[in-house]
Design goal:
235 residues; alpha/beta; Rossmann fold; six-stranded mixed β-sheet; five-stranded parallel β-sheet; 9 helices; 36% helix; elongated
Length: 235
């Protein structure tokens, strides 16, 4: 049996995940790229803050349109976002991998000055509101939209063929969009980045849900590899 892994993130992120997965997997697998969101820039302005907050790599990419100076401190949700921020000229502070942990980290550090959370139109966690409630000054800067897309015909064909299908899901938004595409005939196995993603998945969509050990891209690869080993009987 050859399992199918359907990647639903935007193209660049999906290709990076696929490359990392295939680096560690030499068994049978079919990989289908089927983005469920399109990142669309939104016209906005951002008066230069004292530091920025990035809860996704998309926020880092979207910040390029804002004309922010190099060297700003950037609170980043995890290591991959932190690496992107560093490449973009920021001075990153790496968070634990999830928004709740990042909020706790910022509150504990109690940074002075004005913060700007550069985010998409669809976001969870109420980061700015929670930081403001803790006595800091933080504003939301909505720099992009996450437009919903339909599953590609290739992905639909794989699912309708009742193959064993694996969906690594990285956001509650993507999980919600996927819910609207079901129910599915195939035995769908979802790998969730976080409890928030897991909670967003309808039980009608997934036969089984695996939660990554921590909300990190490397752990998502590791969880996907574990599922593939289980499905194919490889060690």
């Amino acid at each position: 049996m050859t399992p199918t892994v359907i990647l639903t993130r935007p193209k660049a992120q999906s290709e990076s995940f696929a490359a990392e997965l295939l680096l560690h997997w030499d068994g049978p697998v079919e990989i289908i790229h089927a983005p469920l969101i399109a990142i669309v820039p939104v016209d906005t302005i951002c008066t230069t803050p004292d530091a920025v907050i990035f809860t996704s790599a998309n926020g880092v990419s979207a910040s390029e349109q804002l004309g922010l100076p190099k060297g700003l401190s950037a609170w980043c949700v995890g290591s991959k976002t932190s690496d992107m921020a560093r490449d973009a000229g920021f001075e990153p502070v790496t968070g634990p991998g999830d928004a709740d942990g990042l909020v706790r980290q910022i509150i504990a550090a109690n940074p002075r000055g004005r913060l700007a959370h550069i985010r998409g139109m669809h976001a969870r966690g109420d980061i700015s509101a929670r930081l403001n409630a803790a006595g800091m000054t933080c504003e939301d800067v909505i720099a992009y939209d996450q437009k919903a897309l339909r599953l590609t015909q290739e992905a639909k064909s794989a699912i309708s063929a009742q193959k064993c299908v694996v969906f690594p899901l990285f956001s509650p938004r993507t999980a919600t969009i996927l819910n609207g595409e079901g129910p599915f005939a195939a035995a769908v196995h979802v790998i969730a980045l976080s409890e928030a993603v897991k909670s967003a998945i309808s039980p009608e969509i997934a036969k089984q849900v695996t939660l990554a050990e921590s909300p990190d891209g490397n752990e998502m690869v590791a969880a996907t590899l574990d599922v593939l080993r289980s499905l194919t009987g490889r060690r």
